[in-house]
Amino acid sequence: GLFAHLAALEARAHEAAVKREEKEQQEERLARLRARVQELRLQRDELRAKVDLQHKVQLGKGGVVSDPAQPSARAVLEWKIGSVKRMLQVFYLTGISGKLTRQGVCFCISTAYEGTYLDSYYLDLLTKAEVQIQRHSVPAFIPLEQIAKKYLQTDVRRFLSVLSDHLNAYVGRRYQADQLQEHFSDLIKGTLQRNSLCNLLVFDYNVSSESDAFPYSARLVYGDLCRSLPTEVVVSTT
Amino acid sequence: MDETVAEYIRRTILKIPRDEIKTVLQKWHFLSETQLETINFHQIKENISQDVVQLCEENSAGIKQAAVLDIIYNHIYPDKRVWSVYQMNKTGEETEPFDVTDFKKKFKRQLRSALKNVTITFREYEDNAIWIRIAWGTPYTKPNQYKTSYVVYHSQTPYVFVSASVLRSNLPLLCQALVVASNYHDIREMELRSHSLNSLKDIVFKRYSQNFQTYRPRQLQESNVAPTNVDIRIISENRNEKERIQRLSREVFGDGIQPKLEFAQYKLETMFRSDPRMDVLNKKEPFRCLVKFSSPHLLESLKSLAPAGMADAPLSPLLTCIPQKARNYFKIREKKDLFPESFVNP
């Protein structure tokens, strides 16, 4: 009956959550290792280019006088541009990158969920006297002021880390809700009812697309704004 | 069907451009597709509206349905009204996630406890915007459907967009209801007004393009640098200056389209500066003056001033700070030293 169904759902959900946690941890480890691999590759390329340069210079001295300085300088420049671009890409992939500006620092928080890169948010910080946010592109429903009040003056790294958690969790929740809407539109009645932070989802659904009724009603509450999984789920019959 | 309801529906239909009436009625979902098929949308609007009223009569439309039609009309054509922005404050943290059913209940209860004779209609949209339509009455008269205010609120944000009606006396009631329903402590009006609701949203929600200096690899627009004149005998003498102006413009205004504002108003209370020998204004009182910039698209025109050669780059920060400070009404007072600074003063 209904209880058996609920128990089964609960068990399934628990399993899925545990699996997902494991998967997340693994992927984090993987991303870190990949970034390290990139670093090492860049170092190796650097050294290789130096060796090549040495060779070319020596050949030029002993061999035909064909103006070796011109092409190798150009090659070096092209390689430098390429390596800088790759380094910038690595910065972007790590999720938080920054650039020194005239008055302080500009940070870019790139968010992702399970391998899909989503939005990027920017913060322009002034670091003259005390640290201040000059301008930003963080959405108004993220509690930026609260997080800044707690951590901005004392520990900028913690501030960025907490803000990044909030933003990543928000885009994760939003992405999941969008995917749910998209892939299960025949099992869900109408559209999901949500709010700006996507931390409350309410919808009526069915488990099979054969009937037209939507006998179950689900209410998902995401109590922790830094997590993209719900803290409370209530399923009832409509 | 009530005569007043019929008249109200008729007048609302007349406001809509003829080619769009059918779409609006479809969004309304009150008349069925078969009913809509019976209307000839190519006749004059007077006749279309009469036909619509006839069908509404068949479906027994009431004031609730007419109010929904009005909200839909205002949602599709928001730029016909002037919108102001209000900001709410709260001290504590969120305990419960925002529930729209809860919000609506609290709003209705709070407003009705202060004034019974109001028509309140809600409509939610996919971008988490909640539209509220309020038709105001008085303690002794029924709500007047032509005296309406509209509120747009995005959940879990501190900003509310209000298009008030003539009755400014009802604003405190409205503000109180909003604060209670959204679990905030207080509310104040910002110095930001425009016809373009979406531009106001862009400004406070930071959706407009700000030029952040980052290492994020981006495609630079090469189109401006492409050579426009093929004739090599024509040399651009001021190329360096032009490029400097382009660069400054881009730094200040960003790459995208600016939010749409119609005016910026500066109230000056500064001393008149003249040659002391000319002895104008002996009294040394502040020279009161109001400067108002108007334009169909103020920020875009400011952006094009320097490239068009009409102003020096960089532009005054008083003009360029408008989206960042989220205000287009300023009071400029004298500072202790000789430079007039803008005092952010509500």
UniProtKB/TrEMBL annotation, chain A:
Q: Which UniProt keywords apply?
A: Centromere, Chromosome, Coiled coil, Nucleus
Specify the domain of life of the species encoding this protein. Answer: Eukaryota
UniProt-recorded name of the protein: Centromere protein O
Transmembrane spans: none
Q: Its gene?
A: Cenpo
Q: Does the keyword Ribonucleoprotein apply?
A: no
What Pfam families does this protein's entry cite? CENP-O
What family does this chain come from, according to its entry? Belongs to the CENP-O/MCM21 family.
Automatic annotation (TrEMBL), chain B:
Q: State the superkingdom.
A: Eukaryota
The keyword Nucleus is annotated on this UniProt entry = yes
Keywords of the record: Centromere, Chromosome, Nucleus
Q: Could you tell me which Pfam families the record lists for this protein?
A: CENP-N (PF05238)
What are its GO biological-process terms? CENP-A containing chromatin assembly; chromosome segregation
Q: Where in the cell is it found?
A: Chromosome, Centromere; Nucleus
Q: List the transmembrane segments.
A: none
Instruction: Tell me if Oxidoreductase is a UniProt keyword of this record.
Output: no
Q: Which GO terms describe its cellular component?
A: chromosome, centromeric region; nucleoplasm
Family in the record: Belongs to the CENP-N/CHL4 family.
Name of this chain's protein: CENPN protein
What does UniProt list as this organism's lineage? Eukaryota, Metazoa, Chordata, Craniata, Vertebrata
